[in-house]
Design a protein that fits this description.
alpha+beta, seven-stranded antiparallel sheet, three-stranded mixed sheet, 5 helices, 12 strands
Length: 207
Amino acid sequence: AGEVLINKAKIVTRNGLGQDITSQIIAIQIFEDIFSPFITGSIIVRQSFDLINLLPFAGEEKLELEITTPSLEKGNIKSDFYIYKLTDRELLGDKSVVYQLHFISTEGIIDMNKKVSRVFGDRADKIVEYLAKDEINGLQTTKNVKVEESSNYLKFISNFWSPTKAIQFASNGATNKNKSPSYLFFENRDGFNFVSLETLYGGNVYQ
């Protein structure tokens, strides 16, 4: 129980240079939160070669990650992330060094660098699906996007908001078929979700 296999953990620079760090990983943490739009995490790495200067790190590195849990048929992770911070670097000896790499879904970096200025007028679920997938105004995701149909029509202006701010505004105004105003937008290992708390409460109990 609890066994996790790291099949791939590869850092790729913007120039296409790559380095597999699977064997250097001490610990890995991945966070999924229904109140957060993106998956985040961190990896603690121990190595004896100067990877930070070898690549070198410039703040635009991608992390290709594949993790499986043998006891689960579903729920494995295979995705690309952006490394946005390096912390807790500590020299343990003449050559050995330990540090922590923090990463976020690639859509999180897109969201930080994109501003949307346009009028929206449609059902809330249609607006959210557009903002998740669109190449110009959205998060440009190719992941699965699960949306629960809303019952109301919204009209608003996104005044140079980020895609997730516009999504949050639509979420706050959305109601489902039972008039429940409790929509959330979040990412898990299955993709992005725009669902109401009522629907989540009605799901199967796993534990």
